[in-house]
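Continuing the series of single-chain predictions for the mutant panel. This is the parent chain; the variants come on the following pages.
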Amino acid sequence: MSALPPDSTDATGSPDAASSPRASPRVSRASPPSAPTSATEPGLAVPQRYWAILVVALGVTLAVLDGAIANVALPTIARQLQASAASSIWVVNAYQLAVTISLLPLAALGDRIGYRRVYLAGLMLFTIASLGCTLAQSLPTLALARVIQGFGAAGIVSVNTALVRMIYPSAHLGRGIALNTMVVAIASALGPSVASAMLAIASWPWLFAVNVPIGLAAIVIGLKALPANLSRNDAPYDYLSALMNAFVFGLLIFAVDGLGQGQAWPQLTAEVLGALLIGYFFVRRQLSQPAPLLPVDLLKIPLFALSIGTSVCSFAAQMLAFVSLPFWLQDTLGLSQVQTGLLITPWPLAIVVTAPLAGVLSDRISAGWLGGAGLLLLSAGLLLLATLGAHPEPMDITWRMALCGAGFGLFQAPNNRAMLAAAPRERSGGASGMLSTARLTGQTLGAALAALIFGVAPLHGPTVALYVAAGFALVAALVSTLRVTPRGSTGLVR
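Parent structure:
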């Protein structure tokens, strides 16, 4: 990271507030979380704001999309690299594992050395690793490149929301987060379709090769446009906590994945017990830290904690649907892959329409009401899909998919805005890391539950999974409404 430009100036070249004698002092080690002061969040001026958000959008698109496209290419990769189907899964697992175990450590690092540095370093590492994936001639080489790529992706997604907070003025923060949310949602939803289209015209290395020019362009623009932190956290970095975090989340991922794959119970039990034991000491250590790597102090803020819970449940519902819908459309309804892709498309398209509107509304209306309404729409849409007959018309599926997407789009931006705004400005990195961790936790839980449901009820697995997804969305809606407080209270986010 030393190769990056110093992060002690803002994007216009003026001295960083942290280095100015008249600036407010950096956060004290003993300072508890306090309410953010929105009046001190001016954001960037136009057009620099647009260039900066473009860099964030490009990086997030690459990181999220690469987490999804490899699934579709696994059979092709296994054949061409002469690997077994079971071993080829490491192309996916290596990336997911690297991202998950390094999200919170990199977010905490961003609080200390600057979000701009962490983001650009992650983008550089991701771009280099993408070239390594393109040139890989064996499965171990490809898996190693995917691990490095995962660490780079973690650098991108761990602080991307914190950067949005620096880019946009507080009065328009909801719009910036809505755009960021829309990019994440669309990249997640369209990953399989994009991969299928590319594989139809090119070989699998091109899935990674296209990242290189896009990554280079984002780096060049980001060096000029991304803002520096105006305040930093001076607490020393906790390397032992970073190591404990890696073991806890790594063991949990192996356990959840093993549950869905039918792993032997002794091994599964050992992984869960190991995660719980290390997790106990990990949390105890965090409680004694002034600015913990796992932001347990932020979880003491009711609005932040409820937003985290809502996010986990909502992404579990979404992943349950995304895993089960292709099987339901193809195996149950007998549709082709092309028809399946076309019928799922209204979901992300509805997010494109709804997310910007939700971003504008989130600057004025409580996230509890907006999020609750969106999640109720998502739950209703999933229930309507689950109760469709054996021979539905394409339009019957289309409007139900659009209803799900509209509900998810209406929920996500206000929820992310509430989560970020509830944290002190100098802890934006920790809040951003928790936001991404909540998304990955929900997605991992949803995928594992889908695999478990398919194993228990193979004939009706997709339909049962849709019912379970609707239940998760309903629970998330109820949790969201708990965030609503009387007008004038500090708990209301506008």
